[in-house]
Amino acid sequence: MSSRLIEILTSSFFKILIPGIKITIPLTVLSFAVSLVLGLLLALVQVAELRFIKDIARFYIWIFRGTPLIVQLFIIFFGLPSLGITLEAFPSAVMAFGMNLGAYNAEVFRAAILAIPKGQMEAAYMIGLNYPMTMMRVVLPQSFPIAFPSLFNNLIGLLKDTSLASSITVIELFTTAQQIAARTYEPFALYCEAALIYLIFSTALTWLQDWIERKLKWKSGGSEDAGNQRTA
Question: How many angstroms separate the CA atoms of 145 and 225, rounded?
Fold first, then answer.
């Protein structure tokens, strides 16, 4: 490796890392928050068996799971202005990523909710809880640990997918690497460096996921032990 290439990589590392911290991570967090709210609402609508609204939810999920994310980005950022709706690049990216991942998270939440025995809902109705209260107090607290691994895997996937935001002029991690590569004529080395930074972020999230899963298992195990003691 030449001294020139080492110098380029050394000087460019933090130039790529800083947009990753300032843009890529906030973009990931905000988009994931939107996807969680949207996914949960879509899941609850489907589980509630409200026929017309359920059909709308299924149609939404079908559209966003069946079309490419980059096409959705282009429709929101480049297409909506023709309808008189203009959004900046960053909000457009948050909207596209959030709406896309919301469709996937909806299926995760739905599967987790359906995994809870129906007898628990029936018991909640017997003591006078309505549907919203049953979901909030009985079903969702139990379904969250079931959904958590898949939701967090979707978060890690979203972090990597944010590189697509470069296509609508968001100056994030990958866009910065592209700009430096265009100036230095070292695309292979710069893109590998960008990949390394993505890998660092993804690894940190994986460690966080493992830590939270251990906490959830510990709490679950503790509650089961306490329940067994009360039964005894």
Answer: 17
